[in-house]
Amino acid sequence: MNNRDVVFPAGRQALYERNRYSPAVRCNGLLFVSGQVGSHPDGSPEPDLKAQVRLAFENLNAVLKAADCTFDDVVDVTVFIVNPEAQFETIWQVVPEYWGEAPHPNITCVGVTWLYGFQFEIKVIAKLPEAAVK
């Protein structure tokens, strides 16, 4: 029995279909969100790092909203950063704008060498509100 339900944010379904993955899947009371990057609607990267991080969070928030969630429902975060030693401080100047108040979700930061032209990616797991559980 397949109890997965795919969630698409408004206006971006074609991008996900072209790249052959689901932006998020609801399953057993949880929302598993694919890595979100600072991409414009056409999929191209935002070149400015701080603006790219903001756009990644905006894209993440659009997916969360499509599932009737907010960042407050997030329990697990994984971020991927190209060249974290050089970019971490710049990225973390932006993160508090979206992170919300304590208690914060747990986080794992992973340094990578390539993100398809991006410098930052964020993936999360959120607990679905009772009304959104399918």
From TrEMBL:
<dbReference type="InterPro" id="IPR035959">
    <property type="entry name" value="RutC-like_sf"/>
</dbReference>
<protein>
    <submittedName>
        <fullName>Enamine deaminase RidA, house cleaning of reactive enamine intermediates, YjgF/YER057c/UK114 family</fullName>
    </submittedName>
</protein>
<dbReference type="GO" id="GO:0005829">
    <property type="term" value="C:cytosol"/>
</dbReference>
<dbReference type="Pfam" id="PF01042">
    <property type="entry name" value="Ribonuc_L-PSP"/>
</dbReference>
<dbReference type="GO" id="GO:0019239">
    <property type="term" value="F:deaminase activity"/>
</dbReference>
<dbReference type="InterPro" id="IPR038743">
    <property type="entry name" value="YjgH-like"/>
</dbReference>
<dbReference type="InterPro" id="IPR006175">
    <property type="entry name" value="YjgF/YER057c/UK114"/>
</dbReference>
